[in-house]
Design a protein that fits this description.
The protein is α+β, with helices and mostly antiparallel strands and 118 residues long. It is built from three helices and five strands, in the order αβββαβαβ. The longest helix has 18 residues, at 61-78. The structure holds adenosine monophosphate (AMP).
Amino acid sequence: MDMAEDTIFSKIVRGEIPADIVYRDDLVTAFRDINPLTPTHVLIVPNETIPTLADVSADDEAVLGRMLRVAADIAAAEGIAEDGYRVMINCRDHGGQEVYHLHLHLMGGRPLGGMVRR
Ligand code: AMP
């Protein structure tokens, strides 16, 4: 395996380091954020490493769609769908991305307020 693909999230996908996994299938894995910012804070990642949203191609459309549908399903299972929630992808430096393995943040369980602090 290319070591460039060996992110902390790929190790979670492969079961090499522990995580509180809430869902997995052939394309994506979802687990609770280790440092939750909201009562529900789940990360949904592709099983195959894509470093950032800026790196996706047409071949990735199925996995990107799966990530969003799984986010909606997990939100329903977590009981936050009715009140609402936020999904967020940080991209590269200005986006504040820390882990270079594409991931979608599912956040909810309280009002989240405005989107970006001025
Ligand atoms: P981002 O800033 O969008 O790259 O978000 C990275 C997220 O990954 C942060 O919210 C971290 O708390 C979370 N994180 C880092 N390491 C782990 C881990 N081992 N298990 C679960 N979440 C993690």
